[in-house]
Amino acid sequence: MLTKAVVFILFLLSVSRCGTSWQSYDAIYNFGDSISDTGNLCTGGCPSWLTMGQPPYGTSYFGRPTGRCSDGRVVVDFLAQFFRLPLLPPSKSKTNGTDFRKGANMAIIGATAMNLDFFQSHGLGSSIWNNGPLDTQIQWFLQLMPSICGGAGDCRSHLSKSLFILGEFGGNDYNAAIFGGKSLDEVYTYVPHIINKVTSGVETLIGLGAVDVVVPGVLPIGCFPLYLTLYGSSNQSDYDGDGCLRRFNDLSGYHNRLLRQGIGRLRSKYAGVRLMYGDFYTQVAEMVRSPRSFGLDYGLTVCCGASGQGSYNYNNKARCGMSGSSACKDPQNYLNWDGIHLTEHAYRSIAYGWLTGPYCVPAILH
């Protein structure tokens, strides 16, 4: 029986050989956080304090750290390659003459949906270490637009033929609040504000001329070894049947329900725009539940971390890239790379799931 991952690969090979696809784009423009950053913190070389900028990050594809939080490529890399576009250059690239006309990536590690003042108003200002929230990323994109497409008329035409991906956003907002000691009851009250910020960002891009926009939801954070290790429980009823912490996955699920409702309202308002919901949650949960269906062996065990420690190979003081950590020799068999980010193999499956369905509604290649 063919696994889902193999089916996706066979599908892409058949499309490639035919030289056609249902959809084509002139460019891809991405906004987000560490799930999709392609190196905005490493444009002048990765800083020494950035664990994601140290080996063994990047070794499976690039042979070196690139600022991607994985052993290799991330979802936007696979989408760019599928549409025969260059890998998206970081928008902060310091290389003279970087060409952003075929794509740019505004995503940056640590990005939040909400601006700093929101966190300061909730006593969480010290939890935000990186000033690259969604509003700022949109400003970065606006600064690039003259080099991308010139005048307003030309820009609308170019952007209408481009694929936009806005997110995921929200994961770091919840991390900041939860790690900052806020109760989940309080964190739930932040969700509508975060959803409004995301949908407002989508509307801004639509106003600039975006027509095809993928808006991903957040991942099931209760399935990540970081959360499983820090907030482990002796009460088995706190876990679902897949070994994930229910209360954190419930928060992710609530975010995603409100996000889908927000996307629905935008669809009604902008009939000529194609809005797609990127369903990280469902696919990652299925990969945890049945890793072998996706060509994986391990769903909850970290590839790069504190090997042999705890139930998940995770230790917050020996994270991937830090002293005391080590990486598995077969990351292609793992879902989880470093405790909160996924492996290249997992991101490849997610990209194909977005292209063909059922993990993007509607699928990009619809």
From TrEMBL:
Pfam family membership, one: Lipase_GDSL
Alphabetical UniProt keywords: Glycoprotein, Hydrolase, Signal
Keyword Ion transport: no
UniProt record similarity statement: Belongs to the 'GDSL' lipolytic enzyme family.
Name by which UniProt lists this protein: GDSL esterase/lipase
Coiled coil: none
Protein origin, superkingdom: Eukaryota
Entries under InterPro entries matching the protein: GDSL, SGNH_hydro_sf, SGNH_plant_lipase-like
A single MF term (Gene Ontology): hydrolase activity, acting on ester bonds
Cleaved signal peptide residues: 1-21
PANTHER family: OS01G0214600 PROTEIN, ZINC FINGER FYVE DOMAIN CONTAINING PROTEIN
Source organism of this protein record: Triticum urartu
Highest classification ranks of the organism: Eukaryota, Viridiplantae, Streptophyta, Embryophyta, Tracheophyta
